[in-house]
Design brief:
- By secondary structure, the chain is an alpha/beta fold.
- It has 3 domains: about 5-120, Rossmann fold; about 130-250 and about 345-385 and about 430-439, Dihydrodipicolinate Reductase, domain 2 (2-Layer Sandwich), CATH 3.30.360; about 270-325, no CATH class.
- About 35% of the residues lie in helices and about 25% in strands.
- The chain contains 16 helices and 16 strands.
- The strands form 3 sheets. A 7-stranded parallel beta sheet has the order 3-2-1-4-5-6-15, with helices on both faces. A 7-stranded mixed beta sheet has the order 10-11-12-7-13-14-16, with helices on one face. Strands 8-9 form a two-stranded antiparallel ribbon.
- It is globular.
Length: about 450
């Protein structure tokens, strides 16, 4: 029986473990909290749980890796390289759903020398976005066409019936990750012109877009789109933009949150402070002043503005203590997000992914759209967990079965990877709707 070591027992791990165990593969789930791993494997055959801390348990990592045929890291991305180095040392294949960092890319030759693959970016975004885009790009090129424009937007959102709070958002992954993403610079190409957006201006560059059959959303640029010109093999394109989808009102609210300094990561003494104190500190008002009015004035808004109402609903003006041990404004905000933006039992989340291509041929032009809408299972796995975990689970199985014969650092942009993974995802109900219109 093949053996997989799954590092981490977080929000997306359950579908990964269920899929592999149901295919006769033994999975060891290693988590800092043993009870969490034990709950995760309940009802799954061929599984075991181990208490493990990636920061301190170096000898245990060596042992667990040596006993596995493949290692999948579902830990925070900062720990992937450490785990990958150990996998290479033991000549074990390695997978993650995270972006390839420069440090991970630097392991390419070592992985090749060891005869193992380090497969990254095999989740939903990154992951399914790469695979579904490359399927269309390769088809355009095979038909003699050129990609002259490509935009791609993805959002993890509450399903329409679960969209019940003023933010239009609920957490299906780390709240800290959601907030940190609002600090990223963006770099993309539009109509042949490179556009650079510093992180503090990110939410000023939001566009409203309608996705047929789904609804109207806000989209804003996501990090570095320019590198995907080479990754996707489309040097001919004049536009490339990868972005994030949110419900209406998100961008204007996060912009004001950023303007207040609530995304700041500087460590400071917040011990004994209340959220009301913090907001007064941010806008330099007295604790005796009304923080709602003071913040509204500082932001150039009226106290009745929907943005102020959202901040009030979140609890930022309440005279309640910031959790002990909190050291940054961002983490203070993160605590409120974690408390207030949760899914209620039985509620569904939703993944929306929308690609829009313009392809140029000798005789005509085509507009090709490809849209994925996937919903979570009430009282079961979220769409986020399924779309992140199932691609890497399918890839893990294929590697173990020998149907993926790659070595070195890769992402799933090759037909030998994306065709079978997308094919199996369709059988599991995760399917794109494509439309082509001649222009």
């Amino acid at each position: 029986m093949k053996r997989v070591l799954c590092l981490g027992a977080g929000l997306v791990a359950r579908p990964y473990v269920e899929y592999l165990s149901s295919h006769g593969i033994h999975v060891t789930v290693a988590s800092r909290t043993l009870e969490k791993a034990q709950r995760l494997i309940e009802g799954c055959e061929n599984t075991e749980a181990v208490r493990f801390n990636i920061q301190t348990d170096d000898s245990l990592l060596e042992e667990l890796t040596s006993n596995a045929d493949l290692v999948c890291s579902l830990l925070p991305y900062t720990y992937h390289v450490k785990a990958a180095r150990v996998a290479i040392r033991h000549r074990k294949h390695f997978c993650t759903t995270s972006y390839i960092s420069p440090e991970m890319q630097a392991l390419d030759q070592e992985a090749r020398n060891a005869g193992v693959v380090l497969l990254n970016e095999c989740g939903v975004d990154p992951g399914i976005d790469h695979m579904s885009a490359m399927r269309i790009i390769d088809d355009i090129h095979a038909r003699g066409g050129r990609v002259v424009s490509f935009t791609s937007f993805t959002g993890g959102l509450p399903a329409p019936e679960a969209n019940t709070n003023p933010f239009g958002y609920k957490l299906s992954w780390s709240p800290r990750g959601v907030l940190l993403a609002g600090r990223n610079d963006a770099h993309f190409l539009r109509d042949g012109v490179e556009v650079h957006i510093p992180g503090h201006e990110l939410f000023d560059h939001c566009e409203v877009m309608e996705i047929p059959g789904v609804g109207v959303f806000e989209g804003y640029p996501n990090r570095d789109s320019m590198s995907y010109i080479n990754i996707y093999g489309i040097p001919e394109t004049k536009t490339i933009l990868r972005g994030t989808l949110r419900n209406l009102g998100w961008c204007s609210t996060l912009k004001k949150i950023a303007d207040l300094g609530l995304l700041d990561l500087e460590e400071r003494n917040l011990e004994g402070m209340t959220y009301r104190n913090m907001m007064c500190e941010l806008v330099s008002c007295s604790d005796h002043d009304d923080p709602v009015n003071a913040v509204a004035k500082a932001l150039g808004l009226t106290p009745k503005d929907p943005i102020i109402s959202r901040l009030e609903w979140l609890g930022l003006f309440e005279d309640r203590p910031i959790p002990s041990g909190t050291k940054t404004y961002l983490d203070a905000l993160c605590s409120l997000f974690e408390e207030k933006l949760q899914y209620a039992p039985g509620e569904r989340d939703m993944i929306v992914m929308h690609h829009d291509f313009t392809a140029e041929f000798d005789s005509h032009r085509e507009r090709i759209t490809s849209t994925l809408v996937d919903y979570g299972i009430p009282n079961g796995d979220s769409s986020m967990s399924r779309t992140v975990a199932l691609p890497v689970a399918i890839a893990s199985r294929m590697i173990l079965e020998g149907s993926i014969n790659l070595v070195g650092v890769h992402r799933p942009t090759l037909p030998d990877l994306y065709q079978p993974i997308l094919g199996e995802l369709e059988q599991l109900g995760i399917k794109f709707t494509e439309q082509t219109v001649q222009m």
